[in-house]
Amino acid sequence: MTDNPTRSQDTILKVSDLSHWVDLANDTLTILQGVSLEIKRGESAAIVGRSGSGKTTLLGLLAGLDVPSQGKVHLDGAEISALSEDQRAQLRAQRVGFVFQSFQLLPAMTALENVMLPLELAGHENPEASARELLERVGLGDRTGHTPRQLSGGEQQRVAIARAFASHPVILFADEPTGNLDNHTGQAISDLMMALNREQGTTLVMVTHDQQLADRCDRQFAIDGGALQEVARS
Amino acid sequence: MTATRKLASVQRDWRERDVRVVLAALVIAVATVATIALFASHLQRTMMTSASTFLAADRQLTAGTGQPIPDTWLAEARERGLATGRMVEFSTMVFGDQGFQLVAVKAVSSDYPLRGDIEWQASPDALREIRQQGPGQGELWVNPRLLRLLEIEPGDTVEVGNLSLQVTGLLLREPDGGFNLAALSPRVMMHADDVAATGVIQDGSRVSFTALFAGEEQTLDAYQNWLEPQLAASHRWRSIRDAEALAGSLEKAEGFLLLGGSLAVLLAAVAVAVASRQYALGQRDVVALLKTLGLTGRGIGRLYFVRLLVWGLAGALGGLLLALPAYWGLAAVLAQMLDQPLGFRLDWTALGPALMTALVALFAFAWPPVYRLRKVPAMRVLRSQPGEGGQYAWLDLLLAVAAIFGLVWWYTGEPGLVVALLGGVAALMLVMGVVGWLLVLTLRKLGGGGGSSWRLALVALYRHRRSSLAQIAVFAMTLMLAATLILVRSSLLEDWQAQLPDDAPNHFLINIAPDDVDEVASFLTARGLSQEAIYPMVRGRLTHINGVPVRQAVTKDEDVNALNRELNLTWMASLPADNRLTAGEWFAPGQREGVSVESELASQLAIGLGDELGFTIGAEVISEPVTSIRTVQWDSMKPNFYMAFPPDSALARMPSTWITSFYLEADQKAAINDFTRRFPTVSVLEVDHIIERIQQIVAQVTQAIEAILALILAAALVVMAAVVSATLQDRQREGALLRTLGGRQRLLVRSTMLEFALLGFLAGLLAVIGAEMALWALQQRMFDGDFRWHWQVVLPFPFISALLLALFGRWQLRPVLTVSPMVLLRRLE
Ligand SMILES: Nc1ncnc2c1ncn2[C@@H]1O[C@H](COP(=O)(O)OP(=O)(O)OP(=O)(O)O)[C@@H](O)[C@H]1O
Ligand SMILES: [Mg+2]
Q1: What is the chain A residue with the closest CA to B386?
Q2: DSSP string covering B489-529, please?
């Protein structure tokens, strides 16, 4: 993959003329139309927009959770729609991290195990050590044996962040990571994400309603009626 | 433990409710099927041993041609580890000092009887004793009647052919005595090795040689396979199943056990299907997350396959661990009722069906929804996707149905049962569809508005119409299976009860001279013994049908037993209560012509109404047209006749003896001694022992049936619990929400209970309908039509199931009522 000629030296995510629609009972609903964007390695980008504008859908397409109805997504040199579902899964395991609004931790596993899981799936050397290190880093070194039920929302999201960064992804996608948290906790979570983003040089793409968080990102995109536009920085 | 390993660990799974339900369903499935199989095999062995005494062995081989059974056959049996014995039966004259008498000799080897025992008396006034062996060489045991007939005493010598034998005791009962009324001459028993010395057996004399075999069922079967090709047409291989009086009961009992086992299989499959579907639905979020984290479809497939495999093992193991003590308990209960209880033995072949059930239930019912998890879109992790309701694909359903009925078939070897159950379930589903449609139609009209608990309940039913219908379907099916079993049980028990009431006649009086008839009757009445009707009996052969000699008329190869010997002919004014006319008319008062023929013999000989039958009685021949055909209860322990004539017929002018039967309690046995002293020429045939045996066996089977019914009902309850609790979370969340929104507790409780009661009532109603249909099919295919209808037994079903479900609903609400809605909503997030 390193000698893929289409791969630009510093473009990690490239979307060209992407459209997405779903078939409903008696007509089609177009959710995204003519979306193009390019994000460079190490950048942080925020996507903002009204509820129902298609942010989550776009994020899913960028991360390769789904394939667009039309258009192309190049993620770290690979063209997503050309990959099979399993190949996309492998790509995610090795290079992509996620943080979700609703945390998405496996309730039956401890914090440590939740963090270890993607490491093991990607075949890392020493999953437990890395997981502990990351949990330490997010300030939960003493809660490793607790299950999600025993943690507060903010703590759960920190575990999710630890899980996302543990495998040192080249790119991290976040869908409203602070959406379920109070202002103060949300602030702490954003700090943590930005810090890790800097430390690891990870590219960050997040959907957020939180203007403060959006403002801290290198770039900002607004989505309206299915169309995406970069917001000029003031 | 690594996280991925933990992902697949059953120990972790155990913490999840749905997994517990799947496992519980599996455990119960395996436990029920294994218990039933183990117990059925135990019961079968018990019944075999009890019933064996009717043959004095497990198997009998009779050669009717006067040809002895080759010694090599017996040697082969012994080589295979079977016990063997020999019997020679013939009629001959015995001579005492004062006279002679025709007797029926049974000469037995030292091994006789292989099963059962002989009742014996040293002299008429001595105690009755149980013997495990026949007379030794040089000895003769005789029927008490012979003492009078020959005017001899025990200790005297009598001549049998060229041989003198000493009378060393009285033969009261032989295990394989049966009640063959043809054996009218008194029985004597001697040793088989003495037979040659008597010189009475010459070629062509009417003698029958019998070989006895006992041993393990498999060995016996293997031996039979070896023997069969060498048998001539005249050889008869008899197993216990042929022992007339029992055959019907045993077959029906076996049918019941099979039915019970099959229902257990079906119930288990339903439980596993419901629980695993629920589990699969709950796993979709996990799968979406795992996919997002990079697990491939194959990896997910493998993960769940391994998991299912581990569950299967755990379920099978758990089930067996439950089944063994359950079987042991049942066997112990049974042992208390038996004279000779059978050892606890693990029949490994009985476990096959149980393990197979687990496997099939898992892979035909749990696997499809779980397998489809691979298809869960990763996108689900961000937003739930439409069109993934997790319905069964038609193909899955077909596979499941085929698998389960294949299993039942394999398990019972009864395609009829499969068809009946399949038909019942299909009919049920059809009715379900109609009811569901009606339900939706009526409930929709009631939508909107709040207030009364009735309204809330109906609205809830409508709102959950899909899951409500699914629940009703599962409940109805479960209840239907239970109802079917209950109905079959009632019919069986009643059947047996009717066949052998506690006061069934257990003694026959044969050979009563016409002059003695009144005296015998008054003798019995004086002792308070209720006597069955008394019938005249004339011995004669059926020799002509429509003027053609019977040997020519009956061209069939098959040997019609009734033609080989003299028949007991009678005359009677009215049809005995337990006989039933199948064709023609019973004799009118004053009618003198005609004969009524037993239906089986009639069909064997292809005799129909109007056919002229010729009988040879002594030197005379009488000829009568067939005026009716009737069925006879051969196992009723009452005098039964192939041929009956009207009272004023030609037969009534023939010399006759009379026969009757009566019931005698065990402690009145002394009356027999009085009777034989008073009427020395009348034969007393004591069948009380046989009847007791049959009653004991029936009691055992009844116990087994009750136990198995209890097991099945328990399984049914678990299925229902599984289904109800599958919706537990939704219900609790709704309840919590309702309370949050200000609903009062009482309203919540009432409406929920009402909703469930309605559900239960509908399901119960459907179940009764389905059960009746299944029974209708069963009765045609498995129980030969003689089935007693008991719809009133299941009448309370809808009400019971309504009550049961209402209580279930109330029970489910518990957490909603005790915990604050806040806490609950958070916990259910
Ligand atoms: N598979 C689908 N089928 C039908 N409609 C869909 C599907 N996926 C998305 N939509 C619709 O597309 C629109 C965009 O959805 P999306 O979840 O992307 O919005 P969003 O911007 O993330 O909103 P929010 O800020 O509320 O999360 C919505 O109107 C949604 O109902
Ligand atoms: Mg969204």
Answers
A1: A24
A2: HHHHHHHHHHHS-TT---EEEEEE-GGGHHHHHHHHHHTT-
Which one of A27, A53, A65, A228 would you pick to mutate in the ligand 1 pocket, going by the greatest count of ligand atoms within 8 A of its CB? Answer: A53
What is the pLDDT at residue B6? 66
Pairing relationship of beta strands B59-63 and B83-95 according to DSSP bridges: unpaired
d(CA B301, CA B375): 10
For ligand 1, atom 18, the nearest C-alpha belongs to: A54
A46: CB partners within 8 A, 6+ apart: A206, A207, A208, A213, A214, A217, A219, A220, A221
What the block records as the tokens of B750 is: 């009432």
Q: Which residues of A touch B292 (CB under 8 A)?
A: 63, 65, 92, 98, 104
CATH of the domain at A201: 3.40.50.300
CB atoms closer than 10 angstroms to residue B763: 29
Binding site membership of A54 for ligand 1 (Cβ less than 6 Å): yes
**Contact residues, chain B, for A98 at CB < 8 Å:** 292-293, 381
Beta bridge mates, B210: B62, B87
Could you say which residues of chain B have pLDDT below 50? 1, 179-183, 388-390, 448-450, 557, 828-829
| Cβ-Cβ contacts under 8 Å for B343 (sequence gap 6 or more) | none
Our count of domains for chain A comes to 1
Could B381 and A59 be called an inter-chain contact, meaning their C-beta atoms sit closer than 8 Å? Answer: no
**Structural domain boundaries, residue A89:** 11-230
- Complex prediction ipTM: 0.83
Q: Residue B473's CB: how many other CB atoms inside 10 A?
A: 21
Cβ atoms of A114 and A163 within 8 Å: the answer is yes
Q: How far is CA B693 from the centre of its chain?
A: 16
Per the CB < 8 A criterion, the answer to whether B806 and B758 are in contact is no
Q: Is A8 or A194 the better-scoring residue by pLDDT? A: A194
The predicted model gives A139-149 an average pLDDT of: 90
